[in-house]
## 1
Amino acid sequence: MTGTSEPILRLKNVRKAFGNLAAVDDINLSIGEGEFFTIVGPSGSGKTTLIRMLAGMERPTSGDILLRDKRINDTPANERPTCMVFQSLALFPHRTVGQNIEFALKIRNVDPATREKRARELMQQLHLPADYYSKNVTLCSGGERQRVALARALAFDPQILFFDEPLSAIDYKLRKTLEKELKDIHRETGKTFVYITHSLEEAMVMSDRIGVMRRGKLIQVGSPNEIYSTPRSRFVSEFMGDVNVIPVESNGAGSVRSQSLGASFKVPPASIEGKAQCLVVRPEFLRFLSSPSDAQNSLKGVLYNEYALGSRIQYQVRVGEKVFLVEKLRQQPFKGSLDDEVLIGWDPENSILVADE
Amino acid sequence: MIEKTSFFAEPGRRAALPILVLLSLGFIAPLLAVVGFSFMPARTFGLWHEPTLENYETVFSDNTYISLFWSLGLASATVVLLALICYPVAYGLVRVFGRWSTVLTLLFTIPLVVSENIRLYGWVLFFIKGGVLPGTLRTLFGVEMGDFLFTPAAVLFGMVYVYLPFMLFPMTLGIAMVPNQMREAARDLGASRWQVFREVELPLSTPGLMIGSLLTFVLAIGAIAEAKVLGGQRIIPITHDIEIAFTYAQNWPLGAALAVLLMLVVSVLVLIVLRRFDLDQILGKR
């Protein structure tokens, strides 16, 4: 959506080393004005170090961080027009909800009446009850505290809002609500959001673009759809939920061979040169067949187990030693029972060849 | 269903019994004895005389209140000075000195191993005419030092010196309790270093400051050795009066009355402070 807008934030060869270890290694990235950009990675991938450098709490070892073409490497956090919502939220426990939200305004010597007016506007925008204004922030529930933290950051009126996994400690249902609310707030305010999470699922819901980090490097950047449907490596494909990954080697044009399964598969024409490869098929693209000719690729296996996932049902099918996951919608008919021999298959266009890394 | 059960049927009460007995005998009984003595006629040694208020009259008609003011004044000054001295040190121990903190903490603790009186006599040797400090100053720089020993300032110095660890350690704890992300968040919201300190660090480390202040105040108001050793008995704190009444004067009821008065004053002050700063609220919920 915003890939074409002016970049507000640019990173050039940004690197941060702690001793010999590069926590963040040579990152190049442009984030567009008004974009919702999410950085995803497992713990230890360097994403928190990266966002702390962007917010001004760490200094890069080398490289440049440019905010609207101005180098901000050495600008301390309090002089940057950006604001961060912390993982711990870091709400001030000795202050009320109102005082927390007004903090940035108080620092700027805004008069109390204007401060309160702005705080109350934000509380309304974030669905906080008006009488919470003078409530002690420690007495608020988890979801309310999230909203207070966001309101406090918005009151600062930052050009970029950073989020360091603020939803990671919230239970599933509330998290889903807050994810959507956050995206709504993003639309309402039109501000640039840079979000960090270890959950690609969370990133998918909210982001315009996603950057996947691994061992300090940004290994793929793209829209949620690109990340989901055309991952470039085994790591990215496995990061987004369950996938079936088959190590394969090239077997001429449009075909690969799996040593372990002793079978060949048709694949889409695009291929990866010179690297070990994997064939990735998502469970929802695998289906049960009544005869091998029903799909271009097929395998014979044993139905080992089934897992109900609400609207969908997932089946574990064992082909020799190899475990495959097959998913279907609940309403689709299927009459297999455990330990039955089944045929599973998929079409080449629903599979992806990725680097085995 | 309401059923009348015996007091000891409630769980935990029987388990609490030994400590209850110990506290009653070891703590409450002596206190009651002191309170009882304060109502006995002067210079008597029994608890079964006709109760009288004459000891309290003596306290107020006499000039004993001067001792009380000295004690309160010195204790307050000690607390204020300690707060000013210890905050930067505690801050350094928590946030600046890193792994040297342990060594420094040890250095602050070691003097506690030596008896307070011995340490105070050490200071006498240090400050006395021709002692370590005045002697060095005269020999090396030809500077004559004015009298410091046996002045109220010397007493205050001694008290600050003796009670420093009792302020420092609670304060260190208080500052260590402020999560670093609070500082970062405040700074990120535009606060300068000074604003971070005033708006976040100081209020959040208040519990440590309060506990340290209470502790040192209560200890300092009971101080006696500093005035005797470093003050050369030029100042008589209330504790000294109490000691005199119980020993040389052999007037237990008067000493008891003074002790009761001191306890009342301290309790009221402590209660006021605890009321103003609800420690449970600051410490309990985060």
## 2
Amino acid sequence: MIDIQNLHFSYKRKNVLSDLSVQFQPGYIYGLLGKNGAGKSTMMHNIAGLLFPKQGKVDVLGYVPSKRQPAFLQEIFMIPEEFHLPDITIGRLVRDHAVFYPKFNQQQFERYLSEFQVPLADKLPQASYGQKKKLLISFALACNTSILLMDEPTNGLDIISKSQFRKVLASVVDENKCILISTHQVKDLENLIDRITVIDNGNILFDQSIPNITRHLDCRLAQDSFEAKEALYAEETFRGNVIVTTNNNGHEGKLDLELLYKAVMNNPARVNEAFHRQPAVQY
Amino acid sequence: MPRLLHLIRKQWGDNKRMYVMGMTITIAIIAGIYFFNVLAAYNLARVFFDSPLRPVLYYAGLFIVGCIFAGLYFNDLSFKPRAITQLLLPASNTEKSIVAILFAVVLFFSVYTALFEAVDFAAISVAKALPATLHRTPLTREQVQQLHIFNMFDGNPVNNVELSIFFALQSLFLLGSVYFEKFGYIKTALSLIVIVLLFILYVVKLADNFLPSGGFDGDMHYFKSYDEHSGVHLIPIPWLLGWLMLRGIYILIAATWVTIWFRLKEKEV
């Protein structure tokens, strides 16, 4: 669905993505994690055709994104970190904008708005930032595009809304859709994403599915200081040392996205090495 | 409904407040000038109606406001969140370029001209309807009745030249709004000033040194050379060069529109 091969991208002299290769398949929600400036948004912009690769190839649904053909644009929707909605009513927004997306579904749109508790009668200029963001997310989901790119979608959402966001998003993914969520608020993606891709300095540091991660790794409290010392990553808390360790227990490991992210950033080679070993039990 | 019509409807829906407000303010200023001359200072009416002040007012409004409208059309592309919405809208670059030219050039010109003519017609009607006692010198009742509506499509070649200059200038401002990343309107204005100054410098300094004294005739197919001893000589201009000089401005307009398409196509954000 999305095939990126040897992608290089730079802003003038600043190299952002170098020789990046990654594939994203339909039917999954991908979490793109990384520090600020790691290249997550740049990769998304290349996928959407908003930036053009300096070298390498980006193939999305068989289209070259940089051509921005209408048939391609009908199949992709991007919710940027900073977004814009025109100063019009919701009704007008739907009437004038939804027509460009052949798979837009009005009933779905109203249902998502209802789940987010955004009144359909609201006028956009009077809505708060959070309300506008929920409206945009509802609109994006109702467009039923094959690819949905979300850059920091939970920024500006309150705790209840974040929970609603996870619930709504989990309900929309199907075998034809590919959803990419870029964020550094990893907690917001817990129990939502199917695969984690960590980007740093324009390279893929880590790229594994959640089942594969829980098969090979375990995030838990260390039983003693020796275990903490031997772990892939350890962090002191008031409860003791929380660690990311290889899963040798023969059962599905626990996953703490934030801890895993820190482990990857701290020592990516060692974390990746754990995936080359046979897990204790095959699920 | 074809996608182009959806795009036109969307452009109007998203921007109608700005368009209506901008045009209302423009026409209100023009109407104010008209009715000031007709009513408040009626003795100025003769100067106003009998001199070229109406065409000047028409063209001043057309050029100033028209270039502002065009120069701000792609302003959204200067702001990342807005640019993303614009560029990812499922329509082709050709459709987006056509809608830009339609709103910034064709519709602006048509609506402005129609409203100007309406104000002109209203002002003249009021002047004609005023009681004779109000008609102070120097405009007589008979002169008022003979006033005719300003018609910029009267076949006057000056109007054609001014209109082609306007369309060229407006197209360049439209290009500037998509070409420059930020402050497109100001940068376009400054660029055009520099280009015009260089052109004048070229004509005055360089061309003067290469061409004999004289000038081009109306159809640009001959150069009229004046000489104290032998009088006027007609120097034929190569056909293609003459054709290009005559139609250069139309070629410039067409080239600008094509460049807008290319620039939109290669826009990154």
## 3
Amino acid sequence: MNRIEQTFKRLADEGRKGLVGYLTAGDPDIAASELRMRTTLDHGVDILEVGVPFSDPTADGPTIQAASFRALQAGTNLPKVLALIGRLRADYPDVPIVIFGYLNPFFRYGYERFCQDAAAAGADAFLVVDLPYEESEELRQHMRGQGLVFIPLIAPTTPPARATTILAEAEGFVYYIMVTGVTGTGAAKAEDVQEHVDRLRESTNLPIAVGFGVASGNQARAVGAAAEAVVVGSALINAARADHLVELVDDLRLALDGV
Amino acid sequence: MKKTNPDGMGHFGVYGGRYVAETLMPVLKEVEAAYEEARQDPSFEAEFRRLLSEYVGRPSPLYPADRLTESWGGARIYLKREDLNHTGAHKVNNTLGQALLAKRMGKHRLMAETGAGQHGVATATVAALFGMECVVYMGEEDIRRQAPNVKRMELLGAEVVPVSSGTRTLKDAMSEALRAWVTFVDSTFYVIGTVAGPHPYPVMVRDFQRVIGDETREQILLKEGRLPDLILACVGGGSNAAGIFYPFMEDEEVALVGVEAGGYGLDTGQHAASIVNGQVGVLHGTKTYVLQDAEGQIQNAHSISAGLDYPGVGPEHAQWADLKRVSYCAVTDEEALAAFHELTLKEGIIPALESSHAVAEAKKRAPAMGKDAVIVVNLSGRGDKDVDAIIELERPTPRSADAPGGSGLSGEAQADE
């Protein structure tokens, strides 16, 4: 069983919802972002998404755009992100770490080398925002060779038949994008999420994490009812910048444990 | 060489495809299906042809530029006069086609990105024609540089949305348009202005623009009784070039040359020559040649002409470059500017700064080709929009004197790289 499977099994055994936290690596610099990541893990984040900054983040709202910009200004690159993951892995041996980003930096690094180096650093999975299923075979081949998991994205616009195709060989968990929009803007209605997630269950037995637009414990509790886990990204960045990251993570943890 | 066409997933060889967020995949498939159906419907083609003729003013003339020919002392120069189209450039061929498709799909809101404002104006124009809403995303820096085009779009009823992210130019406007499309995916048709972006846009835009090459073929056969030896077109995203090149793919005797923007010079790193000087990458939904650094971060382009100021290029051009059916070269700001003045003074035609790049390349090649040779230059747009930029360029300022290559125009926005 890999770390993702172990984590969801543990959560199920404990009757709890998972908290998936996203932070952009290198925002505002590598050391500070590493500290933020450690803080979220120490306060109950179950799965960590490490964002690789990209110059043209076309699926992200203002918060993550700005975070990516700051990270690039600070000289963040893939080798530095992989080194950061290596340090986290040494101290958090059981936490699943997902590398989250846009394709071009990975493509440029070279798929084979990227998969080798990511696995060696201790990453468990990739989530590539602009790599839909149809274009993903080449990268997935290299990932399989290293035991890395490709996390599929499903949107509200994805028709059921397409979801079934995408999820046929999927592993790890499914990331359900709750809103048609960019990250960090607008929250979805809990009943819409429930309906979509229920429909998604017909295509997969994997755990489902719901994300986009979750900014508070209350929202997490509302949408979390439908899923196995909730993803929080932009709100963590905003909280870290306002110096109340610990409060937000505690609030989210408390809310999700009460679902 | 056989005419190139993409596979079922929009790949031109290893290029092209669809690299977008999952949210957009279904709508791209809808656009693709609607386009496939439309192109097989004779009534769609007939309506497109009628509007190209009655509204755009096609066919555009193929004009023998005798004074240029005489002055350069070599090949006979013909200019394909896309500058005479309604709205002043080739852009309207494409926006008309896409608006007809949007109408067929029952969408009543058009969205576009724009750099110089030409594609924005062409989209706003057809939106007015069809009574559709129109939203245009434009970088704040470009809004400052292209005030008259902003006003034109507003007069045509469009809303111009300023984009303040990144470099505040075309690249960022396109990123923002993709974000907005994700949000308004149900109601809105995204009118992409060039042969780039995710499938089916590269092939669809080429098809709407191939009228340029189809007309050129007929016109040159009438005038010369044979095909030209060389066709030149400027390449930013590459839509005017794809439009004029594509019908000549199988005519091996016709050399096809795409002219990219060399900016301050390729060695300065401040240019927009994605094929000549870029590497393969993925940007805005397609795999193609891209200006990027060693880490895969997209670099800022620079060109004197806002319309060529883009760090990527259409995927079919990438394939043509690899197959060596089309060769690509770069012309600097300075050379383009000289060609702009020469054409204006010799023929009384003020060309767009974009098209001036192709004219500059013609000047380099014509003398060596002999008087029996024939060159066609795609004059993709007129230069009225550039007059303000020319005024600014010719005003001596300490800033422009310091800039490499001697011109400080659109370099300001990009110089911070």
## 4
Amino acid sequence: MSNTALTIAMPKGRIFEEAYDMLIEAGFNLPENVEMSRKLMIEIPEENIRFILAKPMDVPTYVEHGVADIGIAGKDVLLEERRNVHELLDLNISKCHVASAGLPNTGLNEIAPRIATKYPNIASDYYREKGEQVEIIGLNGSIELAPMIGLADRIVDIVSTGQTLKENGLVEYEFVVDVSSRLIANQASYRMKNARIQDLVKRLKKCVREG
Amino acid sequence: MSSIRKFEKPLGMRDTFPKIFEKQEAIRSKGREFLQLRGYEFLKTPTLEYYDTVGKASAIVESSLFKLVDTQGNTLVLRPDMTTPIARVASSKLLKEKIPLRLAYFANVFRAQEHEGGRPAEFSQMGIEIIGDSSVYADAEVILTAIDFLNQLGVEDFKITIGNAGILDAIIRKNVETDEQFAELHQLLVQKNLVGFEEAVARFRLPRTEEETLLNFLEEATELTSIRQISKYLSGKQALLYMEQLASILEIADVAKYIAFDFTLASHMNYYTGMLFEVFAAGSGFSLGNGGRYDGLLSDFGKDVGAIGFGMRIDYLVEVMPQQEVPKDDVLVLFVSMQLQEALKTAETLRAQGKRTTLQAIEGLEDVATFEAQFSDVVRIGQGGISL
């Protein structure tokens, strides 16, 4: 089955650009500009590759079920989704970190501290590890609102420059975990298409920048 | 929690409809004949076992066990695997009669889903166990049986990845300082989190040589050209000689094209002590099955003998098997009630010819045309016993 295409699940948006450029740099014969605004799938017959474009949170799901052989996903997504996928390489792109933040000079409510986040698993793991029992409130976006209007004492979210926090009058309290994009693989594809995947890993590894 | 609707089933439970049932049954009957011809004896064990015996000895994580309580207050589990119950039966009874034992099973096992659907919580497994033989030939037999069985089913594009739990443990242990470090690295390899492995090694601040050894091992062992490459990571060579012997047996058996060695292969099934393997095939994103040597498990049940086996998932086998179009050969004998005798005779003749024959009184049908359309052939027996 060496003639079947390698299916790569890519996250839509900012990470796509960076990862795509990295593939070009690694010597893959890909068109410089891809029209990806509405497309969900891109075929690259020259390289026998097929990209599927997914919501970043969903990339590990496609890879776990084997409908994509490999994928590119943020560490935040991997920690949150806890999918059974192989994590092969840290691409060291799209770097940021997960942190807790809140209004300046505030502490946690003593009776029932509330944490708003779109990463309920990461947040509850973190506070459990710290030995603090908190209540997690799941939100899907505009997390910064929660402390501003009194829904939660803290938020747990990704921070890259800190600009969004600042604009909303929030300060960072605790560092939770570093995040960067990772190359992940389906367990069966990793064995069945091993040569192609190893080759890809080796070529990408050369393009990974430190720091 | 919304109320349960009439059509719903517990999370992870599935119905097996006739078409899939037929496919699974075909695998079962082929497998049965195939394994019997190789001297394997089939057995069954109960669906329920004690938590304290089989539940604890099995390698399935506690949160995946379905538990219930019997009338005496003992905790029971729905069997989460078959290897552990077989170890129980073998050590308490069967080993007194014959050594080594070659046992086989078809059984449903139960593992609760933690997150969501997409994966069944009850599934059929087919497997074998050789108990009481510690030689490398038993390892080879198990692997060759798995290969031949897949070939028998018409599956050609598959890979068996072989590792060794003992060798992996020894290499990691030799290069880390604490049990916690060992456990963390082992768990990262179970998840095949290579990035996490490198990060953890860096975080441990091990002496330079140990750190380099672990990282080199990770790189080299996943892309092995010869087993001897691993030699430099080990002080005792016995396990390695064993693996080389296994490799040469598999070479002689001419199955090298299906085999890949990966000494970083680690299993969440923590009872494996020696050789272990995983089976993958084109057409499924999941592992079809796995197996290995589990010499320690039998001693949990009071017998110190070697044991090895494998289990394969019937549901995944169905997915990767070539689709054989079974010619539809269903005959309908439709009769008016007056002609029952004639209809019975006709049906008997057809069945004797090996045709699947459905006997249906026209009086019992509301929509004759729709029902008839589901058959490849219709014999009508109308008034006066004439087929129309």
